[in-house]
Amino acid sequence: MLPFHKVVENDFQAVNQLIIDQLHSNVDLVENIGHYLVEAGGKRLRPLLVLLTANALGYGRRRHLELAAVIEFIHTATLLHDDVVDISALRRGRPTANAKWGNAPSVLVGDFLYSRAFQMMVAIGNMDIMTILADTTNTISEGEVQQLVNAKDPTVTEDRYLSVIHKKTAALFEAACETAAVLVQADANNTDRALRAVLRRYGYHLGMAFQLIDDVLDYQGDAEALGKNVGDDLAEGKPTLPLIHAMQHADRAEAQLIAGAIREGAVEQLPAIVDIVKNSGGLAYTQARARREADRAIAELSQLPDNIHSRAMVDLAKFAISRLY
User: Fold this and answer.
1) Residue numbers of the chain with a pLDDT score lower than 70
2) Hey, what CATH topology would domain 3-322 get?
3) CA neighbor of 183 nearest in space, from 125, 138, 256, 232
4) What pTM was computed for the model?
């Protein structure tokens, strides 16, 4: 368990139990796949953000546990659908659900998790939270479609890439932080939209930093530590920022090699492309951009109360850019 998890250890364990409890179904396959995903673990950063934010703002009730579980169900549903679209075979060091059970069960259990998340949202009973999460789920879906459109297209620009990772990744980080603030304010009968905006911006910058480093690790990470195959992005023809920058700064032949690998998903070219991406500054550029995003996230936290939970949120932003998995 990482240090920022330990700050909310009791809450975190309660959320894990709630997730297991809410996976109940009369259909065995739903529970089998659901429990398989839960047992795979993961960093659970999105529900962690709910717990840290609520506690940083002095929340004293228990509904943030339900909200954290909702966020995790939405995230897990997107992973199930992602793995089908990307034809992924490995996640968190284990076969993906689609590799183990097939595409159809994975898609349908993803739908079950989405619907269970919305059932739990209704039980929380806060219209602002439901609105934010409904909009966020729609945004994530748009991002998935845009990524599919961008696949195997070496002409994707940096702006198009950043738009996709905002929608696919940062949007749920934003929502986790903002909905936690909404929950706290509803309990205190207070509406501080400025504070909500601060936390939303923190989530945005944190999510962007996290995804940028993910894209770096796809070219210089360790498969065992990552729990997935290095080079997966290239195999799927995803034009991520390291490649986009490399194509702009490498020589013509090297840029053409990268463009061809993106079009073909040519993972056999990975060693050569890693060298080009490194030598052209693609990895360094992406890492520097991630550091700027993390710094901006930390700057937003100056407007929160100074306590063990807000300091853990600073640590989380630092972890996002220093991690190796």
Assistant:
1) 1, 92, 221-230
2) Farnesyl Diphosphate Synthase (1.10.600)
3) 125
4) 0.93
